[in-house]
């Protein structure tokens, strides 16, 4: 039995974005209970040259919607969101999940051989075949940013465990 491109991506985006939302809710409760100003957590980084928590959320959402759209042959939605609060992070996650929910499995049929062209933060194009794009580029990028958001919060004392990271599956 083969694993479809849809089955390898959309359910994972749903699971991990939902868990990211739950982790952020715990972070907000932690900040309130410990009298930590929310911006201190939202701008926290693991190291000065890394992205902040709010940017990790933004980039994870960008990858989830971008991968879904490209594999389905749809235009990638452009969100101008630059979340600065926990509520804005949650709204971006909800908006991303709503878009991902519109992608149908049939739209990804044949995506494993579809040419995917991206410009990853540079003017230089990068070309992939769909399966290569998903497995070797898109999913690792998405998971990196979700994991880093989790790690920033753990590093800052939010009581989280592996179950929080994994969410419901």
Q: What report would you give on this structure?
A:
With 169 residues, this protein is mainly alpha-helical. It has one domain: Four Helix Bundle (Hemerythrin (Met), subunit A) (Up-down Bundle). 57% of the residues lie in helices and 5% in strands. The protein has six helices and two strands. It has a two-stranded antiparallel sheet. α1 packs antiparallel against α3, α1 runs antiparallel to α4 and α3 (53-72) packs parallel to α4. The chain is globular and about 50 Å long. The two termini are 21 Å apart.
Care to give the gist of this entry?
This protein is mostly helical. It contains six helices and two strands, in the order ααααββαα.
Helix-strand layout with pairing:
Elements: H1 10-33, H2 38-42, H3 53-72, H4 86-102, E1 115-118, E2 126-129, H5 130-155, H6 162-166
Antiparallel strand pairs: 1-2
Helix pairs in contact: 1-3, 1-4, 1-5, 3-4, 3-5
Query: In which order are the strands of the major sheet placed?
Result: 1-2
Q: Would you identify the CATH architecture?
A: Up-down Bundle
Report the uncertain regions.
none
Averaging pLDDT over every residue, what do you get? 95
**What fraction of residues sit in β-strands?**
under 5%
List keywords for this structure.
single chain; 169 residues; mainly alpha; Four Helix Bundle (Hemerythrin (Met), subunit A); two-stranded antiparallel sheet; 2 strands; 57% helix; 5% strand
